[in-house]
Amino acid sequence: MFFSVHEPTARETPVVVEVPHAGLFVDPESLATLAAPARSLGYDADLYVDELFADAVQEGASLVVAHVSRYVCDLNRAEQDIDSLTVEGGTPRAAPHGLVWRLTTENQTALTRPLPQHELGRRLRLIYRPYHAALTELLRRKHERFGYAILLCGHSMPSRGRIGHSDPGRKRADVVPGSRGRTTAAASVIDAPDRLAREFGLSVAHDDPYRGGFATGWYGRPHEDLHAVQVELSRQLYMDEQTLAKKPGEFEKTRQYCRTLVARLAALELA
Length: 271
Hints:
The chain is an alpha/beta fold. It has a single domain (3-267), classed as Zn-dependent exopeptidases (Aminopeptidase). It has seven helices and six strands; from the N terminus they run ββαααβαββααβα. It has helices at 28-31, 38-43, 49-52, 117-146, 187-199, 214-219, 248-267; strands spanning 3-6, 15-19, 62-66, 149-157, 175-178, 226-234. The protein has a six-stranded mixed β-sheet, with helices on both faces. The radius of gyration is 18 Å and the shape is globular.
């Protein structure tokens, strides 16, 4: 219910693609504490990114897709990324976009009250830990079979920074790969999304404004032959950011970029 794992339909490769933020599902228990408007669920989701990467399995990659809204549990945050304004008994710092969001990116209230510890525990037990256990097992299996594994973290972003972002109002590049200062993967993995974007005539800004989230840093351990890179796609490439509708022709071009990127990563020789 909360996420799904899709196995390769072609010859298996060392690549795993994860899409943690495309979901809109809010379970009843989470809905009881949700104050974010319905509009924000769509505006703050990585809408359609699961579809953009759906062809990954045909390129031999494994695909993990979260169906739950990031307002229930943000799977690209550390388990300990909570504060006392979000969860009872949390740390005293202010982190509005942690494991559980308490503000939308438009600075609207997302929670009716701080979550009790038992509710946080429920979300960790049913959603967060099973998701990361599945991701960990896929990477372990790939590493065991191929001698290395590559994690591609698929995301999307508003074409301009919003009020709650670090770059409000600024126009962003079409593609923003993130590798935490080129530390989470081998150079060939890090360069692949940049080079391909330019081949597609797209602008690129590596690590700006997103350097890679929790998953990129946690799983990206190139010294252990585990490589991770995050790719943020500007939403204006494939959808209308106001109506949230796809742009059919542009969507297919962006989907082709995603499929080609998976193929390029699969073709790398890192062992």
